[in-house]
Amino acid sequence: MTLVIIITVIVGIIVFVNLNKNKGLNKMNAEEANELVKNPEVKILDVRNPDEFKSGHLKNATLIPVSNLAARIQELDSYKEKQILVYCHSGMRSSAACGILTKNGFTKVVNLSGGISSWIAKGFKTVS
Fold first, then answer.
1. Measured between alpha carbons, how far is 15 from 67 in angstroms, rounded to an integer?
2. DSSP string, the chain
3. Spatial distance between the Cα atoms of 30 and 113, rounded to a whole number of angstroms
4. How far, in Å, are 32, 68, 79, 114 from residue 41 at the CA level?
5. Is the pLDDT of residue 87 over 60?
6. Pair 93, 64: CB distance under 8 Å
7. CATH homologous superfamily of domain 2-121?
8. 106, 127 contact by CB (below 8 A)
9. What is the mean pLDDT of residues 96-112?
10. In which band, very low, low, confident or very high, does the pLDDT at 90 lie, cut at 50, 70 and 90?
């Protein structure tokens, strides 16, 4: 399982570096994200691995690991012009995921700055 985490992180770094270096990436802090997720039309996308997801995630989040995102992008097609909040553990993989989504025509993608770690640090709830 550790090897999967390492590979996922490496893929995320490579994608992050190669996808426009995410200049102009839309970011949102945990307080702003906490307000955003109250809107039922917002898609919440967790790009961590399944074990991380099982340990706790934002309510109503969909899991698509960043390493699988490009291959599963069509699952999100109905959100191309709707708000998507993307998060991971610390913000690095979600930055890469935002780049993938943007490159594929998604227009309202926001990265949770600091990832779920910042969410938890602010005392916001997760589900498992």
1. 9
2. -HHHHHHHHHHHHHHHHHSGGGTT--EE-HHHHHHHTTSTTSEEEE-S-HHHHHH-B-TTPEE--HHHHHHHGGGGGGGTTSEEEEE-SSSHHHHHHHHHHHHTT--EEEEETTHHHHHHHTT---B-
3. 7
4. 16, 23, 9, 23
5. yes
6. no
7. Rhodanese-like domain (3.40.250.10)
8. no
9. 97
10. very high
Residue 13 confidence class, pLDDT cut points 50, 70, 90: low
Are 49 and 4 contacting, i.e. CB atoms less than 8 angstroms apart? Answer: yes
The domains of the chain are located at 2-121
| Residue 80 phi, psi (nearest 5) | -55, -35
Q: What is the pLDDT of residues 19-34, one digit of tens each?
A: 444 445 799 999 999 9
* pLDDT exceeds cutoff 70 at 106: yes
What residue type is assigned to position 103 of the chain? K
State the amino acid at position 123 in one-letter form: G
